[in-house]
Amino acid sequence: MAAGVLLQRIGLEWPIFQAPMAGTSTPAMAAAVSNAGALGALGIAAENVEGAGRMIRATQALTNRPFNVNVFCHRPAIFNAAVEAGWIERLRPEFTALGAEPPTALREIYTTFRGNAAMTALLLELRPAIVSFHFGLPGEDQVKALKQAGILLFGSATSIAEASRLAAAGIDAIVAQGYEAGGHRGVFDTSAADDRLGTMALTRLLARRFDLPVIAAGAIMDGAGINAALKLGAAAAQMGTAFVACPESAADAGYRAALASEAANHTVMTRAISGRPARCLSNRFTRLAQSVPDAEIPDYPITYDLGKALHAAGKAKAEFGFGAQWAGQGAPLSRPMPAADLVRLLAAELKCT
Prior knowledge:
Blueprint: H1 3-10, E1 16-18, H2 27-35, E2 40-43, H3 49-62, E3 67-72, H4 81-97, H5 117-126, E4 130-134, H6 140-148, E5 152-157, H7 160-168, E6 173-177, E7 183-184, H8 199-209, E8 214-217, H9 223-231, E9 236-239, H10 241-244, H11 253-259, E10 267-270, E11 278-281, H12 284-288, H13 302-316, H14 339-352
């Protein structure tokens, strides 16, 4: 589908989508992007129903334009006491060096959207223009209810097979997430083989195969990157790392400093921070985990419970190297500025390419 068709359907001026980025995106960011004529987004996967409601309502108070609300559709965590105990002991020396104690047990800190009746009811009540899914799909009844409410549905795919499942489920647009993208890799099944398709190859493959809008996502940082994706058949480009350094972002000082440092040139795909593959700036956590077998890392999001505790212990000592500093391979092209200014700059660059 041509860019203009999808943009007209949503009501946008520019084929620029801010990635949801749970934990980093904010109502202020989403509203600023949407008010500038692009598509803002909220990631509510780390929120309970009350927190998600506050975020969505706060965004609605700041803009009357469409925005995207993203949820995670992972399978519930599988606990393994031996693996979890081993993981705590593996990281205990890091806690000790920071003068802290690790948790005695790990929790499933995030709830999947799959089968979550309360979160579904919230979305049906507040009716954001778009709801998007990561890590797979919710139940058929959830998809049906959201569509009947007039909400457009997007789903992330890292392969043709995943895109086929989205199309069969009646999803309205496919987010083609390339291997170079920052943050959590959207694979449906972390135990399955991953062909690690890049953004541009995946975008072209999906645009040729499916009669659905394709949104390119992964390492797109400027107007030239957006234009390249559009030429390959994308209807729009989704950009996350490009917005991390904006003042409206929730990124902490350490995250911002790392993004502006040499670490931006060395992103790493790791499971060690959360339990699922995710691309992060090279830091103390990624280096610590380089040689750890996947079988010794607890399930998602159980691993994240310990990772967040370690990050908190580090921050208390002004050590930010254990943070979830998600970033794509385009990180060195980051340009800190207000989100609306970035949208305007991207639009101007797109016009000139």
